[in-house]
Specification:
Blueprint lengths: L1 E7 L4 E2 L4 E3 L4 H14 L7 E7 L3 H7 L8 H28 L1
Antiparallel strand pairs: 1-2, 1-3, 1-4
Length: 100
């Protein structure tokens, strides 16, 4: 399995829910990683978007524990809030571009 994780280093939260791909979907996983990275604000070093290969999500939770907070519900709520913020920022950029 291949897992896509996008997190905010400053708040130590996911910016979106973790996604998983099969080994056969490797190319799609790479495309998604690129798309997710391009959608995030371009603050140098703030965001981390990674693909991690592991047998299971449980393995990732053990080997990459820094991505997972003790209370997963708070991560999900933070991810939703981050998505809303990114959506609002995108809307503002589009509005600004159409006025120019």
């Amino acid at each position: 399995m291949i897992f896509l994780i996008a997190c905010d280093r400053r708040t130590q939260t996911f910016t979106r829910p973790m996604e998983s791909f099969t080994d056969e979907e490797r190319v799609e996983a790479r495309r998604r990683r690129f798309d997710v990275q391009q959608a995030l604000p371009s603050e140098q070093g703030r965001y981390e978007v990674v693909l991690i290969e592991a047998s299971s999500e449980a393995d990732i939770r053990q080997t990459h524990a820094r991505y997972f907070a003790p209370d997963e519900r708070s991560l999900i709520e933070a991810a939703k809030a981050n998505l809303r913020d990114m959506s609002d920022a995108g809307r503002r950029r589009r509005t600004k571009a159409t006025k120019a």
